[in-house]
């Protein structure tokens, strides 16, 4: 019989983990095969998982019905997959998105390998949630992935960059510095400072027009 949830959660899975890179972050993860080994080592007598087929298409790739656009304005479908997990007398399905790191996989880069990777990830995550094995590792990784996505949003969205600069500006205001004093400290006039902030909106508008123009020539 498999150990209790609390006992399984106390197992340090990090020494069995592999590593991958997402952005600047190193993410460690538990390989699906090692996950099965650890379940058997801790009392399980039957462990396996298999893809859940879409009853309409017969494929294990499921369209969520949601679309997203990439930076060039190309529309892509957001895909999901699911696995059926068996651990002794426990059986459950676990479904989630097909991802490339923290981003959904685009139509033109979807492959059987990405689909398989997603299914393996769902198996290991489903095991963590239902048995406790590796649960704390998932908590750490989820936090890191959120930070990676947050940094990607900040540094690739012009208006978010503007927000970040405004936060710095506000910090000076809170210390009692006026706009004229801040401008002087960074070698600008007040008019120059106002103009710089207006440039963000102008650049964001230019980016939007470039994307629209790109759609028009495809």
Can you describe this structure?
The longest helix is centred in the C-terminal third of the chain and has 27 residues, at 190-216. The protein has 218 residues and is of the alpha+beta class. The radius of gyration is 24 Å and the shape is elongated. The model has no long low-confidence stretch (mean pLDDT 84). A hairpin with a 5-residue loop joins strand 4 (62-69) and strand 5 (75-87). It is built from seven helices and eight strands, in the order αββαββββββααααα.
Features:
218 residues; 8 strands; 2 domains; alpha+beta; two-stranded antiparallel ribbon
Write the layout of secondary structure elements.
Elements: H1 5-9, E1 18-22, E2 25-29, H2 32-41, E3 47-51, E4 62-69, E5 75-87, E6 90-97, E7 99-100, E8 103-104, H3 112-131, H4 135-156, H5 158-174, H6 179-185, H7 190-216
Antiparallel strand pairs: 1-2, 3-5, 4-5, 5-6, 7-8
Helix pairs in contact: 4-5, 5-7
How would you concisely characterize the structure shown here?
The protein is an alpha+beta fold. The chain has seven helices and eight strands. Helices cover 50% and strands 22% of the residues.
How many domains comprise the coordinates?
2
Estimate the strand proportion. Answer: 15-25%
- Radius of gyration (CA) equals 24 Å
The termini sit apart by: 60 Å
Largest sheet: 4 strands, antiparallel
Low-confidence stretches: none
Helix content percent band: 40-55%
N-to-C order of helices and strands:
HEEHEEEEEEHHHHH
Approximate shape? elongated
Structural class call reads alpha+beta
Mean pLDDT: 84
State the total count of DSSP E strands: 8
How many helices? 7
């Amino acid at each position: 019989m498999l150990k209790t949830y609390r006992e399984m959660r106390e197992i340090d899975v990090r020494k069995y983990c592999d590593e991958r890179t997402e952005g600047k972050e190193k993410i460690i993860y538990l390989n699906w095969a090692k996950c099965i080994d650890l379940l058997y080592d801790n009392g399980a007598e039957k462990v396996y998982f298999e893809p859940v087929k879409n009853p309409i298409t017969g494929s294990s790739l499921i369209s969520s019905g949601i679309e997203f656009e990439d930076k060039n304005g190309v529309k892509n479908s957001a895909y999901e997959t699911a696995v059926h997990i068996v651990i002794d007398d426990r059986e459950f399905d676990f479904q989630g998105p097909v991802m490339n790191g923290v981003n959904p996989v685009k139509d033109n880069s979807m492959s059987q390998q990405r689909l398989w990777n997603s299914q393996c990830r769902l198996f290991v995550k489903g095991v963590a949630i239902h048995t406790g094995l590796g649960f704390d590792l998932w908590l750490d990784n989820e936090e890191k992935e959120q930070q990676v996505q947050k940094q990607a949003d900040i540094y690739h969205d012009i208006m978010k960059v503007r927000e970040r600069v405004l936060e710095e500006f506000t910090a000076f205001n809170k210390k009692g510095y006026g706009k004229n004093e801040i401008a002087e400290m960074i070698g600008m006039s007040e008019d120059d400072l106002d103009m710089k902030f207006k440039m963000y909106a102008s650049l964001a508008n230019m980016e939007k027009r470039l994307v629209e123009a790109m759609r028009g020539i495809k």
